[in-house]
Design a protein that fits this description.
Residues 22-82 form a coiled coil. By secondary structure, the protein is an alpha+beta fold. The chain contains 10 helices and 25 strands. β6 (215-224) and β7 (230-234) form a beta hairpin.
Length: 585
Amino acid sequence: MRTRILLLFLLGWGKIAFGQEIYDVQKEIDSLKEKYNKSKTEIHTLEKEFEILKGELTVTVSEDLNIKIKNTQKKIQEEKKSFKNTYQLVESYKNVLENTKKENKDNVEHIFAFFKEEDKNCFPEAVKSEKMETKTYLYFGENKIIDQDLFANKKSTETELLKSLLLNVGKESYLGDITIPKAGQKFLFYNNEMNICTQQRYSFQKLKVEIKDGYFSDIIVYVTDDSGDVHVFTNQVGLSILFYSQYGSRRFMYYLYSIRKEDFTNENLANRYTDEAMAGLLIKVTDVMGYSYKIGNHYIPQDLAIELPQDDVEGKKTNGKSGATYQIKQDTYLEKIVELRAYTDFLALFGQSQNGLAQIEGRAKFYLFPYPFRFFGSKRVMGQLEVVPSISPFVNYSKFDDKSKYVNLNTIADYRFELVEKRFLTMGLHLEAFKWQHKNSPVSISLYGIVDYNLTQTNFGTEEQPDEVTIKALKYGGGIHLNVKRFNNFGFNYKFEYSGFNYLDFNGEAKLEDENKKTKLPSWIPVAKHEAEIFYHPNGNPNQAIFTRLITYNDAGKSNNQAFYQFQFGYKFSIGSRTVKQVSE
């Protein structure tokens, strides 16, 4: 308003002498000049600060750095908007004075010498026209979003290096792309006969996805109707990541519940939704979520929970103007793939048993057929079933006291279970054959098979001059595994396993035979094993887990009642390299 009044004043009084005009507006021009230069300097300062912050950015994308970048960019945009207003006001003053007294143009140019055309570079970026296209963002986990165009048109060496890190789609970090619709985009429902309901059109709001055990285990979508009510739909059975393109269009999400908008002034309350009507509607998964992988990276990701859309570092809605694609990236350190545990046996420490004083376990899980399907064709309540979903190679090493690590073959006929108790090395495979679980239940049950190779030692020499012989056995069998979780980071495991140790076919040393050339070892030892374990890890950091477990081994032979027990406390640890920062002395 002040600008309009001043401009009208100048235009309405064009007959006043030019010198008087300059005098009347000189103070206003001086004030604008000061504001103009101060704003331009502030923009340059903030842009330098932003460049410094980019130089500190790494692939891990720390939360504090994200906040700093977001706040700095917000300040830059606000200052640029203010500068643009000032620029346009100065430009208006200059045009009015030039048109009033054209013969004094040189004097006007002198007064407005600070005003330059190239300063338009300090204007905020022009808003592009709305297009129905998909914008790409980088999702680094823990709700960290980076716009892929963040460093567009920036040619410095530092920027190119940073782009090569952030935009890297190498096999070690790149999972794939998850695409969601534009905010408010409408779509059609399906009925229970899988036919399109042409009369029902609701709007997309947001999506929540959990990736676990190689598939999309939990998918929740929020949609809104014209009355502002929010309706929540979810899947009943997990959807394989590897076969998403084949089966995604055949999977539907079912009505879960609604959040009614408290609008009692609405005249059409009688036409609002009912739970009974909503229960008859289905949403096709591919209508609200798309997934594609990068060629060469069609593998199983780590467990991940995602909520989309997310705001980018500038605080903008990533799907506000168009659909959004999120490039999901993960760190693949060795510690996240190979699980290493160290256990201490309390019974051995206090002399109550001849178990190993300490044990180290290593295990890696490989997915074979992570394709869940409905349990016996059930629609909703019976959960899902997986057949041969995974296989896990493992190794276990036990450290015994030097005085108790050997098996006494002279008493082996009466105490054959020593062969099982004093195994110092075990290597094998754990095959998960069948697995049942329900997405709304904290319980999962699986049947598994196991085969492993075991080593035990005996000594035919003396303590000073040992003559060690390794006794070998192949164990195979199967069991049942029950997993119960109290929280996501606190739970209980129970396993029952029945297996047998074959010693007859793997030991041919003469020292292990008697004078009649018959082996001193038993041919077969059947074992019933019970294992109960409680685990805990800090929320969001499963690599710092602790465990407590009790294991019982019972000789399942008809004439043997031998047994031994292990009570262990353990923790998970990691191996692998890390970048180490040098500290100056």
